[in-house]
């Protein structure tokens, strides 16, 4: 293998996903800072990265997706799941659901209550607003003119209007906006799109600044390890086209490879649980047991209802005329089903009345399919997915080998607590209650999954949840933020890795607890805060 001489930068960012694109933009804004961004995936030069419905073709496709898989999960009755992660600049924002969701104010106030100053709702709301370009313009809760475009969906479905009315009849009130700190209620999801095209983090934050002479982006290169010298992250070693390169950092190395990539790289570099590293022949630079632990994800239970007398996308998908109409509508107006996010209608509610705040999120879709990558069903139907927003189950990420030749072992440990199994059972009951309301009666909804033969007992419903549950692609927490007194914490409140100078983590892996909703925009907020802290600390040195 060839090796090149080292090059030196002020900042090295590992990963050009959602977080890395923001970091690249902000850290290179000062022309004095020389910034290197390393992305293992390729460029986003494929049409399905940009047409919103392209997620159907991107997820599970090795061109766009790392195609990870979990280990077999006891809570899922022995099943293993596909675990999509974006494989291009923009990362998962190039293949995800495009849903703009911040979570709940109480999520961030909880982080502050853990002792993490600067992370309460009042602290993060201005950060969300600072990079937002919201279709309603600037106001108390939204910003305008930023890089992160937010729009209202460009199509409607009569069926979804009726589901929303059924939710109202079941006690879930309609609200105008999920992003004001309290998302309890029903509304249409706001989406990261611009005039009918997906708006990824690469389009918003990275591509507009690639002409900066002090910013260098390298794609299709794998970062193999961090250089740790005398307790400091001095740079990285990465490989591209069989050639090994070394890049050194005068300032900091920032990991933005996501909740799978960042802890994996740390472990390969000797930062992690000492016993695990030694087992794989890796010299221990820092024994930190929290690296790869605390994995959290939202498990969605995909309930499917067959209907009649109302249009769904299923029929249009299987009609030659319907497909032609969809294509023409998009080509001429950038409207119609090709602009669809995977879910259009959202509902947040409580699994039980005694819950302090909404702990369930529903994603409702006027379509149905067995799994991503498969054709839509030939019968008219809708899908009502529901997830537990604050699971108590905790998983982990472990090494498959000591050199990174194999993907890490992903063990989410879904439904491993009694509380999570109870919430899963309750969530199916809530869905059934909504569907049983008068608003949907004219369409004779018939439960296909989990099926009418599953009775209402907690045992039967929890087992059904294990049969139908799948990831909704929100892994977080594997390098959690915490206090120095917490042996499982990996970074402090300024996202500096405990015990290693010059190294930060700035992506979804730092979340101590998962946010109550889709996690992409909170990840972008984390990167925005991280960049500000990095630059502030540099000025103070």
From TrEMBL:
Xref: SUPFAM superfamilies: FAD-linked reductases, C-terminal domain, FAD/NAD(P)-binding domain
Top-rank lineage group of the source organism: Bacteria
Keyword field: FAD, Flavoprotein
Necessary cofactors: FAD
An annotated Gene Ontology molecular function: flavin adenine dinucleotide binding
Cross-referenced PROSITE patterns: GMC_OXRED_1, GMC_OXRED_2
Span of domain Glucose-methanol-choline oxidoreductase N-terminal: 86-109, 258-272
InterPro entries assigned to the protein according to its UniProt record, in alphabetical order: FAD/NAD-bd_sf (IPR036188), GMC_OxRdtase (IPR012132), GMC_OxRdtase_N (IPR000172), GMC_OxRtase_C (IPR007867)
Homology family: Belongs to the GMC oxidoreductase family.
Protein name: GMC family oxidoreductase N-terminal domain-containing protein
Source organism (scientific name): Ancylobacter mangrovi
